Each structure stands twice: as C-alpha cells, then as structure tokens.
Amino acid sequence: MSTELINRITVKKDGVYVSSHSSNDTSPYHSWRCKGLSEIYAAEGQKGLDREVIRMLYEYAELRGSHKSLDRYRYAKDTPAAHAIYQRFIDQIDERYEGLDEADQKTVWYKPTEKAKEYRAYEREMREKMYSEIAKRCGEYDKKQKNKDLER
Asked: Structural domain boundaries of the chain?
C-alpha cells in the first residue's frame, strides 16, 4: 500500500491544488487540481478543507518538505495536544469494539451483523468528530501567526 506524499497545498481561484507523488513512485512531485478537496472547499470553506486534509493525513498521506502551506497541518496534527485528541477518540472506538460479542467482532469487516454495522457507523461518526476537532487547531495556528505578524 502506498502513501501519498504531499509537499504543498494551494488554494487558487479555480480550486485546491496539491503537489504530491506516491511513495511507491520515483517520479518527481507534480501539482494537480484535487477535485474532491476543491468541492469541499467550495461547499464548506477553509474549515472543511482543513478537516479533509487532516483525514488524508491520518488515513493515507504524509507531509513532506517545508513549504509554508504545510505548517498549519503539522501544527494541527503533530503536537501533544493533537495526540491527546486522537487517543481520546481511538480509546472510545476501541472500547465500543471490545464491547461487541466475539461473533460480532469477527464480522465487522466481512458480512457484518447488525451490531457490527452499528459499530462501523459509530466508528465513522467518531472519526469524523476527531478529524474536525484536530482540524480546529489549524485555526489556532492561523491566530498565532496573525498575532506574530502584528507584533512585528
């Protein structure tokens, strides 16, 4: 399984562009308009974009390089506060899983029982809340940067 390596995220008038390449690909980074992120940005603005980038970083992508567009996502995801948020939600998800009967646990990923379906819905909901809460930290980063700029 490959990981998408991202070295820049840029919002332009016509959408959101990501400069990336796959971890199992030796070609150089290339910039491309990401339809999914562009649609989310158009519908929900910066908060929606931040949530989806955070989701990508937890599920299948990594940040690479030092472009300033990545700083807010590093701040949001790679701090002790973000790790605490992550752990709190994962503990709740794990607790719900452990509460399932063994028979239901075995069906979570294949031919799920009704209880397993309920668990999966709970897991999706909790992950959505987790990504949103971690993404709020991007706004905190922006405020800190704004205050630094005002002090100069």
From this structure: 4-67, 77-151
